[in-house]
Specification:
alpha/beta; 5-stranded parallel β-sheet; binds beta-D-glucopyranose; 759 residues; 26 strands; globular
Length: 759
C-alpha cells in the first residue's frame, strides 16, 4: 500500500465533501493492448453523450428477480442503443432475441454484455460457497467455477456476479452462505481460485476463450460487517479492521485479474460504498491499480437518497459517477439524469469517457464487436448443460464439503455390510427444493437428488433398510407428525434425523436473530432422543447454527449445508463411508446467538480470560456462557483420527528477506484411510497496533492411509508476518511471534517461537 495516509485523508475529505469531487484520472486499459485501446477510442469518438451514458446503464430483463422490481421497461432503451448490459437473461434463444433487439435499430450497433448471478453453478449446482470452502481444496473450487462458467457461457452469458468474497463473522447474516467464511488468508486464496476458475486464468487473453466469463468481485467493501447481522445494515468498523481483515480477499481478486467489481450496499464511516471515492478511486484504482469496471449493486445509486447523502437521484448519480462507479445496475439513475449533470458541469465528460472505455474494452476483449453472437451456439448449449462429468464433479465436491461435527460410538459411517434398520426422520429426508440453496442459478430444484434417493440407490441390495416419517416441517410449530415419527423410530435400530433451514432463510435479505433449528425440529429431536435409540442428525442449512443442544444430546452431527444438484449422492457417499469426510469449518459455530460476532482471530483485550481460570472476575468474559465457540474455525472430524507431532523450525530467528521452514509430522492413527487439513497459525505478540490471538498463515490437505505418517512443511517469510500498522503501512515489525501447527484454531498442542529482527 503506497500512501494509506493520503487515503485516510481522502476518507475524511470525502465525508466532508460528500464525495463530489470530479475525477481527473486518465484511462489505463485493463488489457494494456494497444490495438484494443485504439478500437475502444475509435468507437468512443463516434458516440454522443447520451449513447455514452447508455453504456453505463444495466437493466434486468426480469426473467428472474433478484431485488426490488423496477418500473422502468428496458426495451425502449435497448432499441435505441442506450443499454450497456442486461442481466437475468439466459439460453441461446433468449439472449439472441435481446441482442438482436439491441443491434437492429440502434445507431452504432454496440453489442450488449449479458450478466447473471452464477454463484455456485449455473445449471449443475455445486455446494453453496461456504460449504465448498469447507473442503479447503482450492483446485476443487477453481474447477467448480470453471464448470459454472462453461455452462453459463454456453447459454450466452458473458459475466458472472461472483465471487462474493465478503469476510463474515456473524452467522445471523444470511449471506454468510455465499462467501468463504471468517478468515482473510483462506478467503484470499479462495477468491483467487474462484476468479481464475471463472475467467480461465490470470491473463486477460483467457477471457477470449468462449468457455470463460468475466468475474465480478463483490461486494466492495465490508458488506459482511453488517451490524447485528442484519442485511443492508451499516458496517461500523475501523480502518485497521477494514484493511487487515476485510480487504485482503478483495485485493486477492484484483491480483488474480478480476475484470469487474461490485459496490456494496453498506456504508463505512458515514459514506455509502456507492458514493465512496476512497474505495473506488483512491484505493481500488489509484492504489491497487485496478483497470476493469465497477458496477453498483442493484439500486445502490438510488439508495444514496434514503441513506441520506443525496437529496435526490440526480445528486446520487453525481456522487456515484464521481466516486468511480461505471455502471448503474437497474437503478436507471444514470440514464435519467447523468446527461444533465454533465451539462451542468457536476460530472466531467472525461469521467464518463473513462467509464465507457472500461465497459467497451471488456466487450472488445471477449470479442463481441467481432461477432455479437459468438457465444450463441445451440449445439454447444445442448452438449454442455449438465454433462455427466459436471455431475460427477458436483458429487465429489458435495462429499468433500461436508463437515462431521460429532460422531459418538461410531454412529457414522453406516457401512453397506451392516444389517440394520435406519429410521429416516425429518423434513429434509425427501427434500429436493432446498438442496440448491438460495443462489441457485438456473439449477432446476426438482432435479436435485434428495438424500432419500441417494441412500436408496447406495444401499440397494444390502441389509441396511430404511423406514421413513417426515415428523414435522421446516418452519412451523406443527407437531401433528410427531406420533408417526416416534413410532417409526421405535421400529428401527438407529435414528437418522435430516433437518435444517428453508433455503429462503439464508442468502440475501434473510437475516435471523435466533439461529437454532427453526420450527418444531429441535422438539422432535428431543422426543426422538427419549426413544433411547442412537440418534444422529444430518443438517442442511445456510449458516452456522446454534447446535449446543444437539451437541450435548445427540450421538452424531453431520453438517451438509446445501450441497446442490448432487446433494443426495454426495451425502450417501459420506454416510456409507465410501468417502471419509475431510471438511473443516471456515466459520466458527457459536454456543449461542449472544456470542455473535464470533471469530477465531479476535483480539486479546487488556483483560483476557485465563484458560485455567474461566470463572475469574473482571475479565473479558460472559457470566452465562464460555468465550469459546462450540466448534472452532478449522474444525472437523473424520472416520479416522490424526495426530500432529514433532513440530520443528529450521531456525528460530529470521531477518528481512529470510525464510523459515516449519515442519511437523501428521499421522493417520485410525483404521481407515482419510484426509486432513494441517493448519499453520501465527501470533504477533507485540506490535504498534494490537494483533489477533491467532492468524492462519498456511495449510495443507494431506491424504494418509491408515497408520501412515507424512511430514508437512510450511514456509514463513516477511509476507506471513506483515499487516497494516499504526500508520496503516503494510509492514512486518520486529519482535516475537508464536507459531502453531494445528488441527484447528483451538489446537495448541504443537507450538514454537520465532523472533523477527527486521534486519
Ligand atoms: C445482490 C447482488 C447480486 C445482484 C444482482 C443484489 O441484490 O446483492 O449480490 O449480484 O442483486 O442479482
Amino acid at each position: 500500500m503506497k500512501k494509506i495516509v493520503t487515503v485516510i485523508t481522502s476518507l475524511t475529505l470525502l465525508a466532508a465533501l460528500g464525495g463530489c469531487k470530479p475525477s481527473a484520472s486518465g484511462w489505463k486499459s485493463y488489457s494494456g493492448d494497444k490495438t484494443i485501446e485504439q478500437r475502444v477510442d475509435s468507437v468512443l469518438k463516434l458516440m454522443t453523450l447520451e449513447e455514452k451514458i447508455g453504456q453505463m446503464a444495466q437493466f434486468s430483463c426480469n426473467w428472474d428477480v433478484t431485488g426490488p422490481i423496477m418500473a422502468d421497461d428496458f426495451e425502449p432503451y435497448l432499441r435505441k442503443g442506450l443499454v450497456g448490459s442486461i442481466f437475468n437473461a439466459y439460453t441461446v434463444d433468449g439472449v439472441r432475441k435481446l441482442q438482436e433487439m439491441a443491434l437492429a435499430e440502434s445507431r452504432l450497433k454496440i453489442p450488449v454484455l449479458f450478466g447473471y448471478d452464477v454463484i455456485h453453478g449455473f445449471r449443475t449446482i455445486f455446494p453453496m460457497p461456504l460449504a465448498e470452502a469447507s473442503s479447503w481444496d482450492l483446485e476443487l473450487m477453481r474447477k467448480s467455477a470453471a464448470i459454472a462458467a462453461e455452462e453459463a457461457s454456453a447459454e450466452g452469458i458473458h459475466w458472472t456476479f461472483a465471487p462474493m468474497v465478503d469476510i463474515a463473522r456473524d452467522a445471523r447474516w444470511g449471506r454468510v452462505m455465499e462467501g468463504a467464511g471468517e478468515d482473510p488468508y483462506l478467503g484470499s486464496l479462495i477468491a483467487k481460485a474462484r476468479v481464475e476458475g471463472f475467467q480461465g486464468g490470470k491473463d486477460w487473453q483467457s477471457l477470449q476463450d468462449l468457455h470463460t466469463v468475466l468475474a465480478c468481485c463483490k461486494h466492495f467493501a465490508a458488506y459482511g460487517a453488517a451490524e447485528s447481522g442484519r442485511d443492508y445494515n451499516n458496517a461500523e468498523l475501523s480502518l485497521n479492521t477494514l484493511m487487515n481483515y476485510y480487504m485482503p480477499p478483495y485485493k486477492a481478486a484484483h491480483e488474480a485479474g478480476v475484470a469487474t467489481y461490485m459496490a456494496s450496499f453498506n456504508e463505512i464511516g458515514g459514506v455509502p460504498s456507492t458514493a465512496s471515492k476512497f474505495l473506488f478511486t483512491d484505493l481500488l484504482r489509484n492504489d491497487w491499480g485496478f483497470k476493469g469496471f465497477v458496477v453498483t449493486d442493484y439500486t445502490g445509486i438510488n439508495e444514496l437518497v434514503p441513506h441520506g447523502v443525496a437529496a435526490d437521484e440526480k445528486e446520487a448519480g453525481e456522487l456515484a459517477a464521481n466516486a468511480g462507479i461505471d455502471m448503474d445496475m437497474t437503478g436507471a439513475v444514470f440514464s435519467k439524469y447523468l446527461k444533465q449533470s454533465v451539462e451542468e458541469g457536476k460530472v466531467s465528460e472525461e469521467t464518463i469517457n473513462n467509464a465507457v472505455r472500461r465497459i467497451l474494452e471488456m466487450k472488445f476483449i471477449i470479442g463481441l464487436f467481432d461477432d455479437p453472437y459468438r457465444y450463441l451456439d445451440k449445439e454447444r448449449e445442448k452438449n454442455t448443460i449438465m454433462k455427466p462429468e459436471f455431475l460427477q464433479a458436483a458429487r465429489e465436491t458435495a462429499a468433500r464439503s461436508i463437515v462431521l461435527l460429532k460422531n459418538e460410538k461410531s454412529f457414522f459411517p453406516i457401512t453397506k455390510d451392516k444389517s440394520l434398520t435406519v429410521a429416516l426422520i425429518g423434513p429434509m429426508v425427501k427434500d429436493k427444493v432446498n438442496q440448491n440453496g438460495e443462489w441457485a442459478g438456473k439449477g432446476n430444484r426438482e432435479q436435485s437428488v434428495s438424500l432419500y434417493e441417494g441412500l436408496t440407490e447406495k444401499y440397494a441390495g444390502t441389509n441396511v433398510k430404511f423406514v421413513y416419517a417426515q415428523g414435522c416441517d421446516l418452519t412451523t410449530d406443527n407437531r401433528d407428525g410427531f406420533a408417526e415419527a416416534l413410532a417409526t423410530a421405535r421400529r428401527a435400530d438407529v435414528v437418522l434425523a435430516v433437518m435444517g433451514e428453508d433455503f429462503n432463510w439464508s442468502g440475501e435479505a434473510a437475516s435471523r436473530s435466533d439461529i437454532r433449528l427453526p420450527g418444531a425440529q429441535q422438539e422432535l429431536l428431543k422426543e426422538l432422543k427419549k426413544t433411547g435409540k442412537p440418534v444422529g442428525v444430518v443438517l442442511m442449512n445456510g449458516r452456522p447454527l446454534d447446535l449446543s443442544w444437539e451437541d450435548a444430546n445427540l450421538d452424531a452431527i453431520m453438517e451438509a449445508w446445501y450441497l446442490g444438484t448432487m446433494s443426495g449422492h454426495g451425502l450417501a457417499d459420506v454416510i456409507a463411508g465410501d468417502y471419509n469426510p475431510s471438511g473443516r469449518l471456515t466459520m466458527s459455530f457459536p454456543r449461542n446467538v449472544g456470542q455473535l460476532p464470533i471469530y477465531y482471530n479476535h483480539k486479546n483485550t487488556g483483560r483476557p480470560l485465563p484458560a485455567d481460570n474461566p470463572k475469574m472476575d473482571y475479565k473479558s468474559s460472559y457470566l452465562d456462557v464460555a468465550n469459546t465457540p462450540l466448534y472452532p474455525f478449522g474444525y472437523g472430524l473424520s472416520y479416522t483420527t490424526f495426530q500432529i507431532s514433532n513440530m520443528q523450525m529450521d531456525k528460530s530467528s529470521m531477518g528481512k528477506g529470510d525464510k523459515v521452514t516449519v515442519t511437523a509430522e501428521v499421522k493417520n492413527t485410525g483404521t481407515v484411510d482419510g484426509e486432513t487439513v494441517v493448519q499453520l497459525y501465527i501470533r504477533d505478540l507485540v506490535a504498534s497496533v494490537t494483533r489477533p490471538v491467532k492468524e492462519l498463515k498456511g495449510f495443507t490437505k494431506v491424504a494418509l492411509k491408515a497408520g501412515e505418517s507424512k511430514k508437512v512443511s510450511f514456509t514463513v517469510t516477511e509476507a506471513e508476518l506483515s499487516f497494516y500498522d499504526i500508520d496503516l503501512k503494510y509492514t512486518a515489525e520486529p519482535g516475537n511471534f508464536e507459531l502453531w501447527v494445528a488441527a484447528d484454531a483451538a489446537d495448541e498442542t504443537n507450538q514454537a517461537s520465532l523472533v523477527y529482527t527486521a534486519k
